[in-house]
Amino acid sequence: MRNFLVIGLGKFGFTVAKTLYELGQNVTAMDMDEVVIQKIRDFSNQAINGDASMMDNLTGIGKENVDVAVVSLGEKMDASVLVTLHLKELGIKEIWVKAISEDHGKILKKLGVSEVIHVEKEMGERVAHNLSRPNVLDYLPVSKGYSIQESPVPKSFTGKSLLELALRKKYGIFVIAVKELIPERMVVNPEAKFVLKDSDIMVILGKDEDLDRLRNM
C-alpha cells in the first residue's frame, strides 16, 4: 500500500482519489471547497479542507506520509505551479500534475514533475484512434507507435489455437488477454493451446502498424 496525496477535487481529482481508495491505497484528499471535502470523506483516509498553495498546510501533512502527490487544480495554472514548487521543496519525489495547456505542461516538466497529465489531449487522441479504426473496440497507447487494442476475432482465426496462429512470430503481436462472452470471463495471458471463438474479444499489444495489418487481414 502506498500513501497518496490528491490536491484538487474536481471531477478528475475526485475520481483519482476515490478510485485509489477503492483499490486499497492510503489516500489524503485536499481541497478548498468544504462541500467537496464532505463528499470525499467516505472515499479517503483523510480529507483536508485547506489551501495547498500555502506551504504551512502542506507541511502539516508531513513528507513521510506522502509517497505520491497528484495535483489537479482545474484552470488555476499559477496555483498548480506554486503547489508543485511547494511539493518539490518538501522533498516529495513522485508528483503527477494535470496540465491545462501545452505551455503549462512545459513549465511542469521544467520543474521536474514525474508525470504531466493532459486529460483532454489524451482522451481526444484516444477517441480519434478509435474513430479511425472502426473494428477496434478500444485503444490505449502505451508508447509512441505502440498500443493495446481490443479487437474482435477475425473469421480466419476462429477455431484455431494461439499456437497455430503464431501471432508473435508472424506479426510481432502479443495476445495478453481474451474476453470470453460464452462463458463470460477474462482469460489473462492465455495458454498457447487456447482456441479462439468468434464471440471472443482479443486484447492485443504491439506496434500500431502491425496491429493495423492484422486487423485488415
Structure explained in plain terms:
The strands form two sheets. A six-stranded parallel beta sheet has the order 3-2-1-4-5-6, sandwiched between helices. Strands 7-8-11-9-10 form a five-stranded antiparallel beta sheet. The model has no long low-confidence stretch (mean pLDDT 86). The longest helix is centred in the middle third of the chain and has 14 residues, at 77-90. It has two domains: 3-117, 3-Layer(aba) Sandwich (Rossmann fold), CATH 3.40.50.720; 122-215, Alpha-Beta Plaits (2-Layer Sandwich), CATH 3.30.70.1450. Strand 2 (26-31), helix 2 (34-40) and strand 3 form a beta-alpha-beta unit. It has nine helices and eleven strands. The termini are far apart. It has helices at 11-22, 34-40, 55-59, 77-90, 102-110, 119-132, 162-165, 167-171, 208-215; strands spanning 3-7, 26-31, 46-49, 68-71, 94-98, 115-117, 138-143, 146-152, 174-181, 184-188, 201-207. With 217 residues, it is of the alpha/beta class.
